[in-house]
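pls design
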């Protein structure tokens, strides 16, 4: 554990760094200092670009972007530094807070990152004292501190080293809210995200149960492992077998399975051991095998379809919720995952790409040289034809002209485009809202994008 004095020192150093950074920051001005007293003329590539002296950016989220300049820190859309550049890690903002980390001396002269929270004014809202900081779910995030737990008093020698202690080295986890308050104490050996109001946790004996957002034990820890709830049921493991419990802890589906997955649309993948070996199938919420145990491997359902590997096959196929095979991997050169009801396929005959629906029918002909890895997103998919890229809609119509040397997926209403090795930004009509004239553009967000020319990064506002 870290002393209160250590915490105060960290906060004092960060405060000093903040004052120095804000007091000397002139990165958004027309000129900048190179560190030796000489003023550097700002690049003159475009009057619309706000040039900032940084080494590496990320996208703007909630009006702030984490950027790197010897260390990580944050700038606003005007290029102003709103935090010290003193962080080893600077995460994206979410609901007004972001996870950050600084390096702090640990054991054996090694430095370790300590995590905390800042708000969008740069103020620390959760002290930098955690060795682990997870993502927020249901307004709470898992945090953990590594240390010696359960050691008896008087087991430290005069130099502070443990001798003959009965404690255990490891982590203890709890939950913190966005205000920086540790609302559920560091008392669990394992802790995971909330889902449907419950989170799986492990007690001092390493047994798993579930708590609610108030930290109250709702399902007594007694399982080897527990997973998040889905569709009202939690997957748990007891004596090496998987089963399901309901929100009050009652056994909803008995412990009959070698492995199982989460429920999706009323079905969950499950595997049983037979004389001939382990076989996968799909069960409903009563435990009934809605799709028989007949597969060598199987995945959760997504978009109403699931990937399965039939015995004797080397390629995965797709089935619907009735177990009917809608697409066999062996029938295509490549078969991508479904997204928004469609999956990209590369045909054996044409050796080109098209799309099938969740009945297995080809709904967009196999006529494209290539398609984007993510398939359809917000109704559009990247396609390549005649060595040029564009977007099509789910009817197969060209939504953005197939005329670009390279295209990136849309982020909101905008996508990065490349013509003749110059970067620009297009909208969903294909109009170049930022002409393709820059050396590099990346990290679209909050109506802004970062542009790079040579070693210089700048911010440009995307016209609407």
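designed seq:
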């Amino acid at each position: 554990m870290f002393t209160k004095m250590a915490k105060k020192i960290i906060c004092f150093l960060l405060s000093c760094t903040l004052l120095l950074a804000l007091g000397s920051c002139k990165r958004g001005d027309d000129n900048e200092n190179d560190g030796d007293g000489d003023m550097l003329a700002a690049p003159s590539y475009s009057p619309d670009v706000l040039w900032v002296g940084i080494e590496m950016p990320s996208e703007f989220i909630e009006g702030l972007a984490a950027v790197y300049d010897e260390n990580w820190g944050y700038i606003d859309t005007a290029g102003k530094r709103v935090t010290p550049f003193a962080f080893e890690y600077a995460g994206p903002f979410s609901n007004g807070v972001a996870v950050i980390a600084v390096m702090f001396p640990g054991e054996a002269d090694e430095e370790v990152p300590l995590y905390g929270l800042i708000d969008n004014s740069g103020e620390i809202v959760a002290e930098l004292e955690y060795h682990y900081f997870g993502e927020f779910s249901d307004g709470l995030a898992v945090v953990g501190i590594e240390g010696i737990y359960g050691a008896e008093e008087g087991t430290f020698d005069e130099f502070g080293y443990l001798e003959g202690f009965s404690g255990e080295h490891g982590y203890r986890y709890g939950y913190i809210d966005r205000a920086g308050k540790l609302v559920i104490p560091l008392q669990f050996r394992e802790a995971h995200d909330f889902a449907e109001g419950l989170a799986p946790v492990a007690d001092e004996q390493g047994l798993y149960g579930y708590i609610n957002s108030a930290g109250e034990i709702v399902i007594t820890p007694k399982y080897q492992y527990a997973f998040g709830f889905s569709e009202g049921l939690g997957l748990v493991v007891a004596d090496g077998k998987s089963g399901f419990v309901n929100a009050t802890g009652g056994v909803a589906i008995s412990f009959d399975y070698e492995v199982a997955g989460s429920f999706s649309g009323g079905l969950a993948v499950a595997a049983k051991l037979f004389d001939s070996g382990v076989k996968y199938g799909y069960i409903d919420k009563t435990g009934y095998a809605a799709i028989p145990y007949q597969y060598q491997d199987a995945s959760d359902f997504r978009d109403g379809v699931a990937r399965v590997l039939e015995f004797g096959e080397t390629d995965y196929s797709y089935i619907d919720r009735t177990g009917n095979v809608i697409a066999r991997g062996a029938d295509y050169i490549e078969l991508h995952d479904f997204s928004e009801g469609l999956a990209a396929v590369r045909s054996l005959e044409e050796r080109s790409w098209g799309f099938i629906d969740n009945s297995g029918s080809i709904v967009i002909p196999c006529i494209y040289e290539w398609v984007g890895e993510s398939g359809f997103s917000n109704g559009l998919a990247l396609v390549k034809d005649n060595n040029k890229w564009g977007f099509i809609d789910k009817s197969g119509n060209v939504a953005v002209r197939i005329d670009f040397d390279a295209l990136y997926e849309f982020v909101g209403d905008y996508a990065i485009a490349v013509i003749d090795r110059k970067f620009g930004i297009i909208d969903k009509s294909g109009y170049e809202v930022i002409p393709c004239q820059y050396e590099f553009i990346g990290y679209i967000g909050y109506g802004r994008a970062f542009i790079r020319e040579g070693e210089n990064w700048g911010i440009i506002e995307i016209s609407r």
